[in-house]
Write a structure and sequence with these properties.
Number of strands: 18
Structural class: alpha+beta
Oligomer: single chain
Strand content: 15-25%
CATH class of one domain: Alpha Beta
Mean pLDDT: 79
Low-confidence stretches: 214-233
Strand order of the largest sheet: 7-6-11-10-9-8
Helix content: 40-55%
CATH superfamily of one domain: Reverse transcriptase/Diguanylate cyclase domain
Number of helices: 13
CATH topology of one domain: Alpha-Beta Plaits
CATH architecture of one domain: 2-Layer Sandwich
Distance between the termini: 116 Å
Largest sheet: 6 strands, antiparallel
């Protein structure tokens, strides 16, 4: 006869087993919670670091373009004189005004300084800060410099761009431009936000956080000053890392009152111009991920408590079902968050890529990207990879369009012509805005006859099209110069472009609205 287990003992065993099972589930839930928190923290750090790197790259390219333009001014023979007081008059001052007007959305001023760092002339005069400029910044050589500064007295935040002026290998002065940080950050930094309240700021070479916009949640995005643990360091660590040209991410404590100050994620990436080391910082409140973690923790405890109270002996099976359901919900939400953040990151990267290579008004490629493609494709053609043609397009009497109808109407015309050029270009062609009302199209694997056919089709379409804003109408014609690699045997990419430019000049001389091949 098989002995039977008393019901009380059986019940006790079942309840004990259920209790042990629930305790095991609690331990497993705790482990899963820590795993979830660790994974979410790592994902957030990586995304912030990618945003910091992308923003730093874009901003460095933008500052590099400005420094290249200032270098052209500094290398002008009119300025490369030992007596800059004499040099900075007349047409030389006019050149400063032209540069300022071309970039007035960002610039506060542009100035010429003498060898002691004192102001010779500036445009506009009233905005140039008083006091001498520290010329020792060029002690390491004749390299351009760029770094953020807080101006003495006014407290204004600017990025200072400076290029030395040399005469007979001697520094006789420099060209200096002040870029308004508020304008710069509105274009490149503050728009780069993603879910959770993240924002990006400039970090100067001393580790100070600049360009923080006033907002209702200023406390959440306050610049951090100390670290949560020894692993991530402190503000000095950021300064040291940026000086070494390294990027990174950590969790820091913000500068705010209270017993429990809010920790922040801070990702940073360097922007280095020769001796100056500064960078971009991306700040995200830790609470953006802490609240979901706490929510999941509370939900798990509630489920376990409900199982212990209401289900007793039969709670084991039900607990398993609820546990699986809960784990599936956590996994689904976690994957959903990753997918949303990945989509947002891809959108930001796409915007940055377009800003780097596209002209904002026409949607065509910009001047820098055009020259990059020209160098690459010319090298292919030179190695016998087929013919290669260049088409330079200039709108006839476009100044009259702006003078007669205003710049807004002129911008509408340029935008419409940009759209037409994209439609007429093949997938392999590169249509770019060359500057002002000039455009250029590079045609790989296209001989002279083929490029002439395309050019004539574009000219005819431009001539027939009527540009209208609903109240005003205007036709705009174009003169086109064409050159080809095999037909004209250029020795360099610049020659191919120069031949097309000469043909364009001939078309302008012959009453415009025509296509001319270089001869």
């Amino acid at each position: 006869m098989t002995p039977t287990i008393p019901s009380r003992i059986k019940t006790s065993l079942i309840l004990g087993g259920a209790l042990l099972f629930c305790l095991a589930i609690i331990l497993m839930a705790r482990h899963a919670h820590h795993q979830f928190e660790s994974t979410l923290v790592d994902q957030t750090k990586q995304q912030l670091l990618l945003i910091a790197r992308s923003t730093a790259t874009s901003l460095k390219q933008h500052m590099g373009d400005h420094l290249n333009s200032l270098s052209e001014i500094a290398q002008d023979p009119l300025f490369r004189k030992k007596n800059l007081v004499i040099a900075a008059t007349g047409s030389e001052r006019q050149r400063l005004r032209i540069f300022y007007e071309a970039h007035r959305r960002e610039l506060e001023s542009i100035a010429i300084l003498d060898a002691s760092g004192r102001l010779v002339t500036s445009w506009p005069e009233e905005t140039e800060p008083a006091g001498a400029f520290d010329m020792s910044t060029f002690a390491g050589g004749l390299q351009p410099q760029a770094s953020p500064h807080v101006l003495d007295g006014s407290g204004r935040q600017v990025v200072m761009l400076s290029v030395p002026i040399a005469a007979d290998s001697e520094i006789v002065g420099c060209v200096r431009a002040l870029v308004n940080i508020d304008t710069l950050t509105s274009l490149y930094i503050h728009p780069l936000k993603f879910s959770g309240g993240a924002m990006a700021v400039l970090i100067d070479e001393h580790g100070q956080f600049l360009s923080q916009p006033p907002s209702e949640n200023a406390a959440e995005t306050a610049a951090p000053s100390s670290c949560v643990n020894e692993e991530c360091g402190n503000r000095q660590l950021i300064t040291t890392e940026l000086a070494a040209g390294r990027d990174g991410v950590g969790v820091f404590i913000a500068d705010q009152q209270g017993e429990h100050p809010e920790p922040r994620f801070v990702a940073y990436a360097p922007i280095k111009f020769n001796a100056k080391n500064w960078g971009i910082g991306v700040i995200l409140p830790y609470s953006s991920i802490a609240e979901p973690i706490r929510h999941h923790s509370r939900q798990a405890l509630f489920i376990v408590a409900a199982l212990l109270i209401f289900f007793g002996v039969g709670a084991t099976l039900l607990f398993q079902v609820q546990r699986k359901k809960h784990a599936l919900e956590i996994e689904t939400r976690f994957l959903q968050q990753i997918a949303e953040k990945a989509t947002e990151l891809e959108r930001i990267n796409r915007i940055l890529r377009d800003q780097a290579i596209k002209d904002e008004l026409t949607g065509l490629y910009n001047y820098r990207y055009f020259h990059k493609v020209l160098q690459r494709d010319f090298a292919l053609a030179a190695r016998g990879k087929g013919d290669y043609s260049c088409m330079l397009i200039d709108l006839d009497h476009f100044k009259d369009v702006n003078d007669s109808h205003g710049h807004a109407f002129g911008d509408m015309v340029l935008k419409g012509i940009g759209a037409m050029l994209k439609e007429e270009s093949r997938d392999t062609d590169v249509a770019a805005r060359y500057g002002g009302e000039e455009f250029v199209i590079l045609l790989p694997d296209t001989d002279l006859d083929g490029s002439m056919i395309i050019a004539e089709r574009i000219r005819a379409r431009l001539e027939a099209h009527v540009h209208s804003d609903g109240t005003r109408q205007r036709k705009v014609t174009a003169s086109i110069g064409v050159s080809s690699f095999l037909a004209h045997a250029p020795q360099s990419p610049q020659d191919l472009l120069a031949y097309a430019d000469k043909a364009l000049y001939q078309a302008k001389s012959e009453q415009r609205n025509r296509v001319i091949v270089y001869t």
